[in-house]
Structure formats: structure tokens, C-alpha cells
Amino acid sequence: MFVSDFLVIGTGVAGLSFALKAGRSGSVRLLAKRQACDTNTNLAQGGIAAVMGQDDLLEYHVEDTLQSGAGLCSLETVKTVVEAGPRMIAELLSLGVPFTAEVDHPDRPELGREGGHRRRRIIHAKDMTGQAVQRVLGQRAQDDPNVIVHERHLALDLVMAPDAGGGRRAVGVWALDLDEGTVKAFLAKAVILATGGSGKVYLYTTNPDGATGDGLAIGWRAGARVSDLEFVQFHPTCLFHPHVRNFLISEAVRGEGARLIDHDGRSIMEGHPQGDLACRDVVALAIDANMKKSGADNVFLDITHRPAEFVRDRFPKIYDTCLALGLDITREPIPVVPAAHYQCGGLAVDVEGRTSVAGLYALGEVAATGLHGANRLASNSLLEALVMADRAAEAARLEIAGRPAPDPAEPGGWPSGRLGTAPSEAVLITHSWDEIRRFMWNYVGLVRSDQRLRMAAKRLELVKSEIDEFFRNFEVDADLIEVRNIAVVADLIIQCAILRRESRGLHFSLSWPRRDDANFLRRIVLENPTPVHFPAAIGQL
Q1: What per-residue confidence (pLDDT) applies to 243?
Q2: Which one is the CATH code of 238-339: 2.30.110.10, 1.10.540.10, 2.70.70.10, 3.90.700.10?
Q3: Whole-structure pTM over 0.85, yes or no?
Q4: Fewer CB within 10 Å, N side or C side of the chain?
């Protein structure tokens, strides 16, 4: 049994930022499912969007974000996040994050440009920005006496207790110690889910293996509202290679002049007003259409016209990774395809990160703040995580002031399953995982239709019944817990997609190919009326 003031699930930029700030006013425990550095943050190449250039304005960044979000952004959230951007960058610089500096002005960060941005405003550390931020914040957390990090602990479900208002309050989580194979209770006055996204719900993704939607599923089972889950961003340029499935080719490459071309060398984005720097939803759909028309398995990203020395210096990680695979990107174009990249929806939160469950906050990719709307603007995700962590730390500090610590006698035992090693029928669990990812890719991917969504929903019902049977009859292991969470996420994505009878941003339906502002200029919200069950009701934030 572990008790602290704040309990944070997830060790990416959102979780680490919150922990460091909350640690100034109380004790913090951080749970990492695998190693603390095994996060989407650590893989982020591009950078952090913030208004730092002399030719840029906060209003421009706000307008670009709203334009990318296709009418569904929360203006309050957008302004809040954008206005705090320069301050967040200053904080990271003061902590020692080694952002790439201008050659002639070493005291100023170099600014890159990415799709959808009208100005150069991407602060970066070459093409390893996330890794640089992760390393600095992670080391600070390790050195902070008020922060304790528990690696290899898989959160299972929220510990709930009666609330003074007559409802229920989150007071901790049960977590599986992956080394010991035992379940432990972690209790706290405030619980923060910062578990990242759910890219592994799709067959092809840029996400690491741990991105199984755990926080989203945990929050949903406890009764937290979810929003915007029909909007899954597919990054246009994932490396197409038989042995490397999830290596991203940063949008910053296009920001420095790379062109998308087909197998005949023709420009894919020719004729679009923003060309290769259009927003991700537009570019990904254009690539998908080109591949279907030509029958090709991929397209190409060509930056060979830029000086080789520039390419090697600006994109060392991408250059070295491709070269190790026999591809010199200074001499030949990079084969690329779209892949699932970012979950724009999540647990519905306010501008301080509060969910609809008392005592529970959500930060980063697991949260739906209203910043991204129907399509996330490039490099707004790390910015959002920093700003929301800053705001949530202050809100949570005020909320728990004077609140007694949870009673260690309250949790009892984890009620949902038996723990142990996987059964001999583990192949069935693997099959369920693979089946979900394949039909989500085929039916609920870049291009959807009513028929495809109905087929996906029907297939999912069968798989969910199998998973429920596994849970009742088998000893529960980490793989079964993750596939249970993947099934929850897939179900919620499908439900939201079925309800949005139009095409907007990242949701493109052949059955409803036009944008319908008269009926769908609103966010779709699902609410679980019976926690721990799947049925949902519609509401609006």
C-alpha cells in the first residue's frame, strides 16, 4: 500500500511536468508501465509550437490552430494554451533542455516550420526534441526527493471511494507490478492520468508498443466522459520498410522543403494552396487517394534537392536510421505511408485538466481539452501537455489543500480478475489483439463508411465477448489487460464515428462526404451510465 498527495500515471512530458510542479507542494508517486523513458514523448521528433519569432503573433497561432481543427476547437482552450507557449519554452530552457539555437544568435532557439503553420514557430532539438525534453524532465524527477518513480507498474483500474457530495471520488489505482506479478494499491488525494494515446488499436502506427489506451479505458470504466474519439490522426509520412514498422519521418522534413511525390516523380500535393505544408488530414488523404489510384504500396518524400550537409545536420536521427537500413536520404527519396499517430479525443476535461470524475485529472494525449478539434496542428501536442500540466498542478494543489489522505483500509483487493501467468490458450488473446487492429485499420481508418463501421462494430462485439470470457476464466496477465483496454478504445472510436454523419477533419466518410455545420458543428461526447460496462449515451460538452 502506497499513499501520496498526488499520483501520476504516465512518465511522458505531461506526467513529468505535473510531477515536478506538484512536488513543490506535496508528495508525488509516478507510475510507468514499462521504463520511464518508454513514451510517445521520447519518440517525438518535430518540436514544440510557440510564438517566438519577430514576424509571428499569438493571433496567428490561434488562427492556425482553429483552421486545422475544422470548427471544433474550444476557443478558450486554444487561447489559453497558445498564450502560455513562450513561458513554457522559457521554463524548459531554464531547466537545461538543449534546444537547437540560431547559428548567429546562440541565445535564441532556431525556429522550424511544419504543416498548417503560417510562420516558423517550431522550437526543436534537431529531430530529437521529445528525447531531449524527456531526458531533462526525467532526470529532474529522479533527483526530486518529493517524487518517487515506480517503473514496470501497469495501472489496472481506479480505486473509487464515496465522495462528500454523494457521488464517487477517485482515490488511487490498482497497479500490476510486472516484475513481481502482484497487484498493489496506490492511493492519493488527486489522481492524474497521463498515459498517452492508443495507436496500437491500429495495425500500423508510429506509436510504441505501450500505447494501448490504458488511461482512456480506465477512466471510462470509472464513469469519466469521453469526447472526440472519432478523430484519430494518421501521420502522412511513416517510413515504409519491411523491417521497421513505426519509424516516423518528421513533418519538419517537409517544413525544410521536402516534396511528396509518387512513383513517377509527380508531386502529390501540387495544386493545393499550402502544397506539401497542408494540414495532416489533407495530406494523409491525398496520399491515400494516390496509392489507391496507382495501386502502389507507398509514396515518396524527397529532400535530395537540399544540400547533403544541411540534411545530415538538421535531421541526424532520421538520416542515421535510414542509412542503417541502406537508404541515403541525401541521394534518394524516402518511401513513406500514412500510419496511426495521435488520438485527438480522449477523456473530456476542462481547462485545468479535471475530468467528470471527482479527484481525477487527465493530461496529454489521453485528454480531450478542445485544443485540437477535428485535427491536431503539428507540434501543438507537446505544448498542450506542458500548459495543461502547469494549470492542473495549481488546480490540484488548491483542491487537495486540507483534504485528508485516503484511508489505506478502503481499497480491499482488485475486484476485476485473478492474477497469474498466461494460460496455454494465450494464442487466443494474441489472435483477438491482431483481429481488432486489422479490422480497425481496414474499416475505421483514414476512409470510413457506414457499412465499414457497422462491420467493425459487429466484429468487435464478438471479440469483446471472447475477451470477457478470458477475463472470467483465465488468470489475468499484462497482455490480457492491454487487449481489454484496446477493445474499450476501439468500441469508443467506432461509436463516435457512427454518430458523426458528415466528413470533417480526420473523420472522412464515403457515406457522408460533406461537412455539415448545421448538424455537427459540435463535439460528440459519450457517457458511461453504468461504470465498468460498455453502453454509452450521447451528450455535449
Answers
A1: 87
A2: 3.90.700.10
A3: yes
A4: N
